[in-house]
């Protein structure tokens, strides 16, 4: 199976909880998100849809300076 590349923006970080806004299509619940940062790519897992453009994910690594 080929992974779909979707681009979003981190809109909020609260501890291990990360909200991400997408311009169009949302990733499926349970999908992993790679959050690009200068010091690496921590992963987060999509847990819920907040609305038609935003998802809530749980970080699988430290979130300090993620936003």
Tags for this entry?
5-stranded antiparallel β-sheet; Thrombin, subunit H; ATPase F1/V1/A1 complex alpha/beta subunit N-terminal domain-containing protein; 67 residues; 43% strand; ATP synthesis; 5 strands; mainly beta; ATPase_F1/V1/A1_a/bsu_N_sf
Folded structure, characterized:
Belongs to the ATPase alpha/beta chains family. InterPro entries: ATPase_F1/V1/A1_a/bsu_N, ATPase_F1/V1/A1_a/bsu_N_sf. Pfam families: ATP-synt_ab_N (PF02874). This is ATPase F1/V1/A1 complex alpha/beta subunit N-terminal domain-containing protein. Residues 10-64 form the ATPase F1/V1/A1 complex alpha/beta subunit N-terminal domain. By secondary structure, the protein is mainly beta. The protein has a single domain, classed as Thrombin, subunit H. Helices cover 0% and strands 43% of the residues. The protein is built from no helices and five strands. The chain has strands at residues 8-14, 17-22, 32-34, 43-49, 54-59. The protein has a five-stranded antiparallel β-sheet, with no helix packed on it. A hairpin with a 2-residue loop joins strand 1 and strand 2 (17-22). The model has no long low-confidence stretch (mean pLDDT 87).
Short characterization:
With 67 residues, the chain is an all-beta fold.
Helix/strand layout:
Layout: E1 8-14, E2 17-22, E3 32-34, E4 43-49, E5 54-59
Antiparallel strand pairs: 1-2, 2-5, 3-4, 4-5
